[in-house]
Amino acid sequence: MVCGNRMGSLLHAMTRIAFVFLLGCFPASHPLSADPFLAEPLIVGLDVGEGIFRLHLLAQNVGDIAPHADAVERYRDGVGAAGRQATAPAIKAETGFDPRSGHSEKLVILFTVAAARAVLDLSYFYAAEAEKEGRRFHERGVWQAYRNGRQVDRGSFISDSDDGYFRLLISPRAPFDRLELSATPYISEDGVDIAPGLILTDSSDFLLRRIAYISAPPQ
């Protein structure tokens, strides 16, 4: 399923604004007030700005065989994979798609207990980041949720943000204990993937700033 797109109604927009306000008002080290979409109190597992790192992180750079802890890199505005996935990005810590190899870096979040839903705040994830041949291209990512090594759901998300800050709501079909984030090639405003080789200096990439989640009920 696709999460994080623009709210289609005034009611949804007002709800989202209220939730952002609540997230900012409550201490990051305590459960947060509930949002109607999530229906349960949220628990902060990661907040780079507050120095909260309660979840185990792994990353996989382009060319790595598997994700590992040493590949995770912190930046002041978030965390991501340590490798440089393209030649132009100024922030090496972003998790991004490499347009030359055709592969993406990966950021893996491991939960100590199964989660039912999650709210992720990203940074440096832009709408209309590139323009070529009369088309504007947006950054896009993919999330995959797993439970006990089995994929339970997946989805994609496209930036609609002018300032690079993006909120991603994840509500899989089943609880998950592992969440993987990766990037894809740019996508145009009319929904067409950028042609391979058209832009080789940069592509979709982002930092993860914050994760809040709802624990799944015990089985």
Give a verbal description of the structure.
This protein has 219 residues and is mainly beta. Helix content is 7%, strand content 43%. The chain has one helix spanning 10-25, and strands at residues 43-47, 52-53, 56-60, 72-75, 78-81, 95-98, 103-104, 106-123, 130-132, 135-138, 140-147, 150-158, 166-170, 176-183, 187-188, 205-215. Strands 1, 2, 3, 6, 7, 8, 11, 12, 13, 14 and 16 form an 11-stranded antiparallel β-sheet that branches. Strands 9-10-15 form a 3-stranded antiparallel β-sheet, with no helix packed on it. The chain has a two-stranded antiparallel sheet with strand order 4-5. The radius of gyration is 17 Å and the shape is globular. Residues 1-34 have low confidence and may be disordered.
* Cα end-to-end separation: 25 Å
Query: Whole-number radius of gyration?
Result: 17 Å
Shape: globular
Poorly predicted parts:
1-34
Which sheet architecture does the biggest sheet show? 11 strands, antiparallel
Order of helices and strands: HEEEEEEEEEEEEEEEE
How would you state the average pLDDT, rounded? 84
Structural class of the secondary structure composition? mainly beta
Proportion in β-strands: 35-45%
Helix content: under 10%
Strand segment count: 16
Count of helical regions: 1
